[in-house]
Amino acid sequence: TGKFYPISVKCKRCNETILGQVNIINEPSLELDEKGKPYYTCRKVLIGNGPCFQKIEIVIKFDESRRVTDRKISGGEFVED
User: Fold this and answer.
1) What is the pTM for the complete model shown?
2) 3-state SS of the chain?
3) Residue 81: what pLDDT?
């Protein structure tokens, strides 16, 4: 995927599909798990262009190689390609 991780979500309130992306080089923050192993995490809030303005919060975890290991969402659902 290169430098960007694409995000596609659907708002639970109005069903609008919202597209976004994470710059996997600059946006994730380095953290340590309970065993001291490093990983990266990124929190994003997306808002669509429609009339409802529902905030959709996404938290994505990456391993040391910047591969996605986990992702969570509130206010919407992930749209799979």
Assistant:
1) 0.87
2) CCCEEEEEEEECCCCCEEEEEEECCCCCEEEECCCCCEEEEEEEEEECCCCCCCEEEEEEEECCCCCEEEEEEECEEECCC
3) 60
